[in-house]
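FOLDING PROBLEM:
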Amino acid sequence: MKKFTTRDLILSGILLALGIIIPMIFHAVGGMAGSVLLPMHIPVLIGGFMLPPLFAFLLGLITPLLNSIFTGMPPMFPMALIMMFELGTYGLAAALAVRKLRLSSIPSLIISMISGRVIAGIIVFILSSFFGVQMNAFTYVKGAVVTGLPGIVIQLILIPSLMQVLGKNYKVGTNN
């Protein structure tokens, strides 16, 4: 197993803190702004570009969990559970797309967004099939994409720009 660096640990902590603080600001400003602008996704996706795959996955897994514990948003069951797997997949897929496939930021983001939504759909299917959650997987994913379109556009503009700036100063997307 590869050893982690202090940089990875510190960066994970900073991105986790941002993943909690940014959504709190959005929820304070406007109730549904979180599901439209997807503020929790941004630090996790950035983590996918800047952290090793395991750290990026754990960042995505832990961020919705801690948000639910600290703020009640998203509600633990079923939303935080769904988002834990979705965001964990975002971080992992982005990290793998950058490091293993050597893709640039936009294709990496698109792959991670699609992968995360597919996993979210699978989790919704499992929850509805085995735990009585009254949700339809296809409707959930479709609704998440349509509602989150403004946030998706923001991510596709903001994150590549930020990675380009950070890439000049840090080892972004290297095999850490």
Q: What stands out?
A: The two ends are 12 Å apart (CA to CA). The domain at 7-24+39-167 is CATH 1.10.1760.20 (Arp2/3 complex 21 kDa subunit ARPC3). The helical segments are 6-29, 33-37, 41-50, 53-71, 76-99, 105-130, 137-147, 149-167. DSSP finds eight helices and no strands in the chain.
